[in-house]
Design goal:
Elements (H helix, E strand, L loop, with lengths): L2 H8 L4 E9 L4 E4 L5 E8 L1 E6 L5 E4 L3 E4 L5 E4 L7 E2 L2 H10 L3 E3 L6 E8 L17 E3 L5 H15 L5 H23 L8 H4 L3 H12 L7 H7 L4 H12 L3 H19 L4 H7 L5 H12 L3 H8 L2
Parallel strand pairs: 1-9, 2-8
Antiparallel strand pairs: 1-10, 2-7, 3-6, 3-10, 4-5, 4-7, 6-11
Helix pairs in contact: 3-4, 7-8, 10-11
Length: about 300
């Protein structure tokens, strides 16, 4: 079980090209309303990332920086530039025409590819949202990531048959490669995040089993036995890596799976309850009401109004 791939799939972390920026001179944009994650890839020149409460971060050519969902931030040509709001209509027109969005009055010295990653609002498992600070990977830290950025840049520079499909695939690949590179280089920043938990072999093994068989009657005892550790050890690792018990994580993931199925399928509630690991519809109803504040049937009806 590839846990990262499974959670990204269920959480709807699908990428899309936002816009290609070409900027020169004095320029800056403040981005404050996009609910998903944003990945800024600098293909030429230098930009500065501004996040409230953080020191401005310089991002060089070949670098990439990921900002967690809902984080207001700005990108600019300097550390002390006054940033205006993004003209989203102009960005949409540029994207629709296959053109770069130009910023500043001087000839372009910096090129930035802005990518967006949506998340399913019905899924509460925090893959990217738990990251407190932007994730920064430099050009020299991952050659594979750099080659993928070059491939994306080439597709954008010379559109041809199949370019849209190619870009969509590359954008999704970039997220996985970016996360790999960041995990390998920033262990000190991972504590308490879902991604950071992937470096703990005990937690990673346990999550792989839960995600591979969410319908299995897992308890802390049976999960500890399956991963060859004691219940106390498993609980300690989960609390350290994820800030919650194994039982709490299992429940959260099952409810996430159920919420997506309630919205996207016509399966009976009873069938869904068994599919996500509950022995009875009554137990499922009780757990779902605690997690989402209403019974499954009402939840489904509200989503479909």
């Amino acid at each position: 079980m590839d846990v990262l791939a499974e959670v990204l799939r269920v959480s709807g972390a699908r990428g899309a090209l936002g816009v290609m920026l070409k900027a020169g001179g004095t320029w800056g944009l403040w981005l404050d309303s996009y609910p998903g994650a944003a990945l800024h890839v600098v293909s030429r020149g230098t930009m500065w990332l501004h996040v409230t409460g953080e020191k401005p971060l310089q991002v060089h050519a070949g670098d990439a920086v990921l900002v967690s969902p809902g984080t207001a931030h700005g990108i600019a040509g300097g550390a002390a530039v006054t940033m205006g709001s993004c003209d989203r209509a102009a960005a949409a027109r540029a994207f629709g025409d296959g053109r770069a969005m130009r910023l500043g009055s001087a000839p372009a010295e910096t090129e930035v590819i802005v990518l967006h990653y949506e998340r399913d609002p019905e899924v509460s498992t925090p893959v990217l949202a738990s990251l407190a600070r932007p994730m920064h990977v430099t050009a020299g830290q991952n050659a594979q990531l750099s080659r993928t950025v070059e491939l994306l840049t080439a597709e954008l520079a010379q559109p041809q048959i199949g370019t849209t499909a190619a870009i969509n695939s590359i954008v999704d690949l970039l997220l996985v490669q970016f996360v790999r590179a960041w995990l390998a280089r920033h262990p000190q920043e991972q504590s308490g995040s879902w991604l950071g938990a992937m470096r703990d072999p005990v937690v990673r093994d346990a999550l792989a089993r839960v995600h591979a068989q969410p319908e299995h009657p897992w308890t802390t005892k049976t999960l500890a036995a399956a991963t060859n550790v004691s219940r106390a050890t498993l609980t300690r690792h989960f609390r350290s890596a994820l800030g919650q018990t194994p039982g709490a994580y299992i429940t959260r993931w099952r409810i996430d799976l159920a919420a997506v199925r309630l919205r996207d399928t016509h399966e009976p509630v009873e069938s869904i309850s068994y599919a996500v690991g509950y022995a009875s519809a009554h137990a499922f109803n009780r757990a779902f009401r605690r997690a989402r504040g209403m019974p499954p049937g009402e939840y489904r009806s509200r989503l479909r109004k």
